[in-house]
Amino acid sequence: MERNNLYPIFLKTGSLHILIVGGGNVAEEKLTFLTKSSPDAKVTMVSPMFRKATRELALKFDVELITDVYHAKYLMGKHMVVATTDKPEVNVQVYNDCRALDKLVNVADNPPYCDFYMGGIVTKGNVKIAISTNGKSPTTAKRLRQFFEEVIPEDISQMVQNLNEYRKTIKGDFEQKVDKMNEITQKLVEKV
Ligand SMILES: C[C@@]1(CC(=O)O)c2cc3[nH]c(cc4nc(cc5[nH]c(cc(n2)[C@H]1CCC(=O)O)[C@@](C)(CC(=O)O)[C@@H]5CCC(=O)O)C(CC(=O)O)=C4CCC(=O)O)c(CCC(=O)O)c3CC(=O)O
Ligand SMILES: NC(=O)C1=CN([C@@H]2O[C@H](COP(=O)(O)OP(=O)(O)OC[C@H]3O[C@@H](n4cnc5c(N)ncnc54)[C@H](O)[C@@H]3O)[C@@H](O)[C@H]2O)C=CC1
């Protein structure tokens, strides 16, 4: 069976700078889910046109909007780039420019031109789950996101906080701490 070999990481978006090229439907979808997960994300968008809802989101999340066509100069200082224009040749240009500069790049409607995929994301306080279908079915990623948003209790974050407080109070060496933390969380994975 085929398997997903992608490696998920949790980016500190507050100190990384992301560029979105394009200002249409796809750009708006990517910005919506990016800011939903990571309201502190540092984002710049460049496009000759932005949708109204995109401009509103930009205002809310302090996103810089540059009204211009894409130029390689806009890559300066950016760590990751998402290309969403309706011009395949522009998206490929963005991809090639990023590759030449070793920047991570995602051409949203073109999986072979993605160094990474955006995933379905569930956030419950301190807990975050990211979901990918290996680019095979974004709709399934969305449905799984909705499912986990529903079934994971909001207070999972309180539990994590409590365990964080508790782990600070445990005396003993590393091994004893590990044993204790595993013992008190055993119930979470016991079959009923
Ligand atoms: C590869 C990837 C690259 C990337 O964008 O990073 C990609 C690619 C493509 N998306 C397409 C379409 C749709 N995308 C969505 C929705 C989402 N797409 C997202 C991620 C990803 N989309 C990455 C893979 C993630 C993974 O590994 O599973 C989500 C999870 C996250 C996000 O957008 O931030 C977000 C749900 C967020 C949420 O709700 O939680 C819907 C559903 C809907 O809108 O209802 C549709 C319409 C239905 C359909 O077509 O399936 C097309 C077809 C274009 C065409 O037809 O030409 C391509 C291109 C292709 O597959 O070739
Ligand atoms: N809307 C969707 O859900 C889907 C879109 N796609 C594909 O994804 C691509 C983008 O789709 P949409 O966002 O709907 O298109 P759109 O037409 O809404 O947006 C395209 C954006 O790219 C900008 N743009 C054009 N040339 C540019 C340049 N040189 N530099 C910077 N920005 C530039 C435009 O000003 C516009 O803001 C298209 O190729 C489309 O076929 C594929 C599947 C679904």
Automatic annotation (TrEMBL):
GO terms for molecular function: ferrochelatase activity; precorrin-2 dehydrogenase activity. GO terms for biological process: siroheme biosynthetic process. Residues 125-149 form the Siroheme synthase central domain. Its EC number is 1.3.1.76. It holds the Pfam family Sirohm_synth_M. Pathway: Porphyrin-containing compound metabolism; siroheme biosynthesis; sirohydrochlorin from precorrin-2: step 1/1. InterPro entries: Met8-like, NAD(P)-bd_dom_sf, Sirohaem_synthase_central, Sirohaem_synthase_N. It catalyses: precorrin-2 + NAD(+) = sirohydrochlorin + NADH + 2 H(+). Keywords: NAD, Oxidoreductase, Porphyrin biosynthesis. This is precorrin-2 dehydrogenase.
